[in-house]
Amino acid sequence: MTTMPSLFISHGGPNIVTSDSEARHFLETLSEYMPRPKAIVLVSAHFETDGVVVVTDPAPEMIYDFRGFAPELYKIVYPAPGEPALAARVVSLLEKAGLSPCTIGKRGYDHGAWTPMMLAFPDAGIPIVQVSIDPNRDAAWHYRLGQALAPLREEGVLLVGSGHITHNLRAFFPVMREGRTPDPELVHKVDAFTTWFADEIAAGDTQALLDWKNRAPFTAENHPTDEHLMPIFFALGAAGKEIHGERIHSSKEYGFFAYDSYLFH
């Protein structure tokens, strides 16, 4: 069976599924980067728990975890099934790694899950098992999550971390909703931050990446809170000891809100 890659996706807001944006058009081509997965294990920045939790739900419903968007976005249904047997395998691997997972029997798809997946795999025919992040744990802990689940790549399972390479909503919403001009200094800081990540991933420098809080430029301006960056470390851990990472998409909204996505193989 072909070994699947792992992915980090900047998932955007729920309106990405209706917007005419570079990020949307990229996600619509995502399936071209790999064979069709047998199943998907997805870590979303919007699924936050204490420790790691695995969803065993065989038929996840929808979570509309956003406010102030167009009414039609609250009517979208992405009916991809869950897969309890795969969820049990995920739990077993996490237990083996000493990560003490818990399970939840009922949880729907948040927009970090359904927006990119419905664009990438619109037929909704691939089972998805959701795994949480812990916003109180660091990059190294989320890297261990990816390491623990890396064997699934040999079984035809695609491992996806869905977050955002930058996520300063305090700067984003005034620009989006009030039409303000982006701060040129913030544009510079976003460029410096995303370039640092691209360079370190291209160099395969795992230690630098895990120490991003100390080594990357302008961390607070790009991530006032850390949760939307943690899925990249899950994807990084799933890539194996010698990472081969490739930035497969880079675009910005309003000149500063970055949508970088990475393929690890």
Briefly characterize the structure.
The protein has 265 residues and is α/β, with parallel strands linked by helices.
Helix-strand topology string: EHEEHEHEHEHHHHHHEEEE
End-to-end distance: 15 Å
Strand order of the largest sheet: 5-2-6-1-10-7
Structural class: alpha/beta
Compute the average pLDDT: 95
* Outline: globular
> How many DSSP-defined strands?
10
Biggest sheet layout: 6 strands, mixed
The CATH class, by name, is Alpha Beta
List the total number of helices. Answer: 10
The percentage helix is 25-40%
At CATH's second level, what is the architecture?
3-Layer(aba) Sandwich
Poorly predicted tracts of residues: none
CA-based gyration radius: 17 Å
CATH topology: Protocatechuate 4,5-dioxygenase, Chain B
Strand content: 15-25%
Domains counted in the coordinates: how many? 1
CATH superfamily: LigB-like
Organism: Mesorhizobium australicum
Cofactor: Zn(2+)
Protein name: Aromatic ring-opening dioxygenase, catalytic subunit, LigB family
InterPro entries: Extradiol_dOase_DODA, Xdiol_dOase_suB
What does it look like?
One of its GO terms (molecular function) is oxidoreductase activity, acting on single donors with incorporation of molecular oxygen, incorporation of two atoms of oxygen. This is Aromatic ring-opening dioxygenase, catalytic subunit, LigB family. Keywords: Dioxygenase, Metal-binding, Oxidoreductase, Zinc. Its cofactor is Zn(2+). Pfam families: LigB. This protein starts with 5 loop residues before the first strand and ends with a strand. The protein has helices at 22-27, 84-96, 111-120, 139-149, 169-178, 184-203, 206-210, 212-215, 219-222, 230-238, and strands at residues 6-10, 39-48, 53-55, 102-104, 128-133, 157-163, 245-249, 252-253, 257-258, 261-264. The strands form 3 sheets. The protein has a 6-stranded mixed beta sheet, with helices on both faces. It has one domain: Protocatechuate 4,5-dioxygenase, Chain B (3-Layer(aba) Sandwich). The chain is globular and about 50 Å long. Helix content is 35%, strand content 18%. With 265 residues, the chain is α/β, with parallel strands linked by helices.
